[in-house]
Automatic annotation (TrEMBL):
Recorded GO MF terms: hydrolase activity; metal ion binding
Pfam families named in the record: HAD
Membrane-crossing segments per the record: 301-322
Family: Belongs to the HAD-like hydrolase superfamily. SerB family.
Biased segments, Basic and acidic residues type: 28-47
Keywords: Hydrolase, Magnesium, Membrane, Metal-binding, Transmembrane, Transmembrane helix
Family matches, as CDD domains: HAD_PGPPase
Positions of the UniProt region annotated as Disordered: 1-69
Name of the protein this chain belongs to: HAD-IB family hydrolase
Length: 327
């Protein structure tokens, strides 16, 4: 497809592969959540033994925000990742880290840099562009062990991603956590990368694109298709059913019109740093808007009381980050 085609958002309906991708993402997220819960319980028991005490539950904060409703465990929050929680594309930052570790050459890096430049300038996720990014990523990780990429992902988060989290969006997620609700990332990024970011931010877990692996080694193929557009909605729907959530009481946050299917599922949709198409759709439908890219508040429609925390700290969007050659 030509460059002009990349600039034209397209609506797609859910396909059998979208449903498969969504269900696979939901299952992977729930598995990771169960493992994290078991590890947290084991760590609490170990800590209690060291202190000679019984483990205690977390204390509740002294104040309750107007929204989300404290104690409403039938609700949860779903956050898109790229340009919503993090400045830029997470897959690009991951690619920079892999390049530093000599996973690929400068030609492949240049391709990643162009993909990131396009993403930052256009500010939306075009299917053809995402397919190009997916092909690049799959070709790089094929033949590598999942455990190896997870270990490297932890290092890459510290090197390139931690400083790019939007404080305002982070405050929104924290408001849900403080209310006792689960908070999930929902992204086209690899589920392993998304899980690392979610854990570092203290979130419940992540739904992401599931890459096929056999005996712990990536095959270079996907399970279903990327978790993008309608597939995200299918993943949220599957997870909500498995968790017993009421979607009408849930919230979702995204910057892209491609996520309108996911946003439309919930009772509290938010447009965060929205592209022009999502901004228009949000205004037409009375959805909540918030823009952290310039420090100014977008049209304020039912923003939670806790949402303002760290809003001004979002700052201006950083210039395109191109990898500098290191000897």
């Amino acid at each position: 497809m030509g460059a002009l085609a990349w600039l034209t958002p397209r609506r797609r309906s859910a396909t059998p592969r979208s449903v498969l991708a969504g269900e696979a993402a939901a299952e992977a997220a729930r598995k990771a959540e169960r493992e994290a819960e078991l590890e947290a319980e084991r760590e609490a028991e170990r800590a209690a033994k060291r202190r000679g005490e019984r483990p205690e539950g977390a204390e509740e904060g002294p104040e309750e925000p107007e929204f989300p409703v404290v104690g409403d465990t039938s609700a949860a929050a779903f956050f898109d990742l790229d340009n919503t929680v993090m400045q830029g594309a997470s897959i690009f930052h991951f690619g920079r880290g892999l390049y530093k570790r000599k996973f690929f050459d400068t030609r492949a890096l240049a391709r990643f840099a162009w993909q990131q430049t396009y993403f930052r300038l256009v500010g939306s996720e075009n299917p053809e562009h995402m397919a190009d990014v997916r092909a690049s990523a799959l070709s790089i990780v094929a033949g590598h062990r999942v455990s190896e990429l997870m270990e490297i992902g932890e290092e890459i988060y510290d090197e390139y991603m931690a400083s790019r989290i939007w404080p305002g969006t982070r405050a929104l997620a924290q408001a849900h956590l403080d209310a006792g609700q689960k908070v999930w990332l929902v992204t086209a990024a690899p589920v392993e990368t998304a899980t690392i970011i979610a854990r570092r931010l203290g979130l419940t877990g992540a739904l992401g694109t599931v890459a096929e692996s056999v005996n712990g080694v990536y095959t270079g193929r996907l399970v279903g298709e990327p978790l993008h557009g309608p597939a995200k909605a299918e993943a949220v729907r599957a997870l909500a059913e498995a968790e017993g959530l009421e979607l009408a009481r849930c919230a979702a946050y995204s910057d892209s019109a491609n996520d309108i299917p996911m946003l439309s599922l919930v009772g509290y949709p938010y447009a965060i740093n929205p592209d022009s198409a999502l901004r228009s759709h949000a205004r037409e439908n009375g959805w909540r808007l918030r823009d952290y890219r310039t420090g100014r508040k977008a049209a304020k429609v039912g923003i939670p009381a806790a949402a303002g925390v760290g809003a001004l700290a979002g700052g201006a969007a950083a210039a395109v980050a191109l990898q500098r050659r290191r000897r």
